[in-house]
Amino acid sequence: MGTDVPDQKFTGADRVRFRRQVSRGTEAIARMLSEGLFTDHGAPPEPLLGMEVELNLVDAEMNPAMANAAVLDAIADPDYQTELGQFNIEINVSPRPFTTDDTISLEQALRTSLNRAEKRAAATDSHLVMIGMLPTLRAEHFAHHWISANPRYDLLNRQIFDARGEDIELDITGVALDEHHDAEHLHTATDSILPEAACTSLQLHLRVAPEDFAAHWNAAQAISGVQVALAGNSPFLADTALWHESRIPVFEQATDTRPLELKNQGVRPRVWFGERWINTIFDLFDENTRYFPALLPVSSDEDPLATLDAGGIPALDELRLHNGTVYRWNRPVYDVVDGQAHLRVENRVLPAGPTVVDTMANAAFYYGVVRGLVEQDLPLWSQMSFDAAAENLHAGARSGFDSQLYWPSVGWIRPDELTLRRLLPLAESGLRSFGVSDKARSRYLSVIEGRCITRQSGAVWQRRAVAAREAAGESRDAALHRMLADYVTLMHEGEPVHAWPLS
Fold it and tell me: Does the keyword Chaperone apply (predicted)?
């Protein structure tokens, strides 16, 4: 939710007006779809790669650095923005063509930008880390006073707690580090939504023609479990070994507006995979409007239907703001650029890091597999229950390469096997269809292949490194700090994580 919202108190009238505006915005979407008012109607748009990368800040001892205001001042680049926690910032990568060798140019530009930002951050005694979850975060770092200064974050925090009526509880049983360890359990409560800030992501955007949106969203949902299994990079929080991709359960619990009674009634959570395959993007906006009360009921003066009647394109500020507070793992995005409306799929399941080349490989794999699935004659989602896709997400996040995922015509299979046998050829085909060069396809898909062959993701490397240090007699706290120091060194060296050695 990146919209700036001033600090304020909301009345019942504010909520009624906002609900009406969101409803009229949903009507406007339906009308724009039926009347072909989106700029990409009837023709696929130029392939563009857009991404957001969330980053953590640490000090020289690898503890969280609560310094994002000072770091952003030092970086002085509008591409870098604040995030929820004072130990977070985000880089927004402007959309670039997704053809020929443009992906390699983007990789070089991202690496240059991050190196420059790291150099400037170091002048404030802080350092940038691309990682899904900072392993040295502890429960005390979730205190309310560590929320970033931007008023929208504290306002969102208050609204979630007002809706919930009680502290947020994290209750997660982890996966044993190895045969010498028992499974660990994190159970803690907090009076802020800052555990959400522990979940640092890679968010990928794909602009699609409105008639193609459903197929792309369904494809993205279908592969979410494979994505997190191959790219897990979030195994530790609060001194506890959790899942390979712990962002999934932590984010689900940290932004839950439901007390136990509403959970028992089956009320839908705001962090949501969904409950069905869709036929049109309208299905998603309609669900958001019908199922979720407003968190930030800030209304504009625009009547979207009147704007359409006058021949204009509505901004749909309320619908977009509301959409930004329903945290789907694959989110629909409505946007207006230069007076033209378009639609995007925003993929939100991936963690940040470990390296720039890993980031680019994760992006290429996602875009390639989605395109390959969309181009198949028989849609995958017609052969697979939606519940199976949802279960795959949690299984892949929990156990990584050791998970068993369901795949049509294959049955239960490990994600590395599935990728090597089925999905890498599909990604190759999809990237070729996008116009990605042979050189770029080989560079990024070879990283995914190497990860599958070695069965080493960022999460696997972190877990192995900590287990080895503990076996050598180090405490958990010391092992986490020294592991993170090694991680930062290897991150800067830039070799993909499947080639990382253990110290």
Answer: no
435: CB partners within 8 A, 6+ apart: 47, 98, 99, 100
CA separation for the pair 48, 123 (Å, rounded): 34
Helix residue spans in 280-355 (DSSP H): 281-291, 304-309, 317-323
The string of pLDDT tens digits covering residues 178-215 is 988 999 999 999 999 999 999 999 999 999 999 999 99
Residue 130 near residue 80 (C-beta atoms within 8 A):
no
Residue 344: its H or E element? strand 340-351
Cα 208–chain centre separation = 19
pLDDT of residue 238: 97
Question: Helical H runs in 292-385?
Answer: 304-309, 317-323, 356-374
Q: How many helices (H) and strands (E) does the chain have?
A: 18, 15
8-state DSSP, 444: H
Residues 44/206, Cβ–Cβ less than 8 Å: no
Residue among 58, 54, 27, 63 at smallest CA distance from 127: 58
Q: Which two tokens stand for residue 179?
A: 């045969």
Pairing of strands 168-173, 127-129: unpaired
Peptide bond preceding 297 in cis form (omega within 30 of 0): no
Amino acid letter, 199: C
3-state secondary structure of 272: strand
**pLDDT value of residue 1:** 40
pLDDT tens string 1-53:
445 666 678 899 999 999 999 999 999 999 999 999 999 887 788 888 889 99
Q: Sign of torsion, CA 394 400 403 405?
A: positive
Rg (CA), the chain: 22
Beta-sheet pairing, 330-337 with 236-237: unpaired
Which tokens hold the place of 393? Answer: 């997400």
Judged by DSSP in three states, 51 sits in strand
Q: Which of 220, 248, 30 is nearest to 132 (CA)?
A: 248
Q: Which amino acid type is present at position 184? A: E
455 vs 448: CA distance, rounded Å: 10
